[in-house]
Amino acid sequence: MNIYWQAHRGGGAYERPDNTMSANRYAWELGGIPEADIRTTNDGVIVCLHDETPARTTTAPDEVKNQLISEFTFAETRLWDAGIKFNEAFQGECIPSLEEVFQEMKGRPERMMYLDLKEVNLSDLGRLIDQYEVNRQVIFTHYIQDNCRQMKEIAREVRSMLWIGGNAEQRMEKFRLAASTGFEGLDQVQFHLKIAEGNEDWSFDLEPAFLTEALALTERSGIDLELFPFSFDASSLHQLLDLGIRWYATDEPALFLEGLNSWNHSK
Fold it and tell me: Is the whole model's pTM more than 0.90, yes or no?
């Protein structure tokens, strides 16, 4: 079966600098779909940045680094390096505008992108998507189902994903709530997965019986079920693959592909 995967923040936790063009290109080159978090600068430019402030990922000066990104102009953000704190090899990376991302996607339908809403006007986002004609390449994602539904109404042919976090009980309840709506406005649902201690037979905090049930329900509804294991090794990834899950998200693309390849070789 075909396996599809999202590079969370482009693989920025471990393998590339968070939300940069280097991270996006890395994921595309490996055959994955990069994910970017989107916010808006003071002058209305949509940019890719996970945090509210530039403190963690950039060289913004101490006197301003804890200010909200929405307080800066886009030109001001270009004064900071967004790669060197990750590794000197990535010196010169900047916080990219979403327009820069779309410029590298336009006319290349194989390049897809997850966009995780942080602070952006949906109508403005829709206009930019339409302008670059990347509608079929975008998967809009948020933890509020209604935002997913609205985005699909604003920009034609955009897909959407509801991501579901919280403790295990909360995740199951949120999933059942989405299912009760017929997964209205959704093309995918994603579960965050955490390692469960003390169970030698199963690695994660959502039980295989529930995941199997969720997979069957989403398949009947014509949508995808995606899993995001925060931590995994080859053995635990194989457990998920054996259930028939074919969509994943990962902070570690290289490690994920290593586990996927070993699973394919075992079949």
Answer: yes
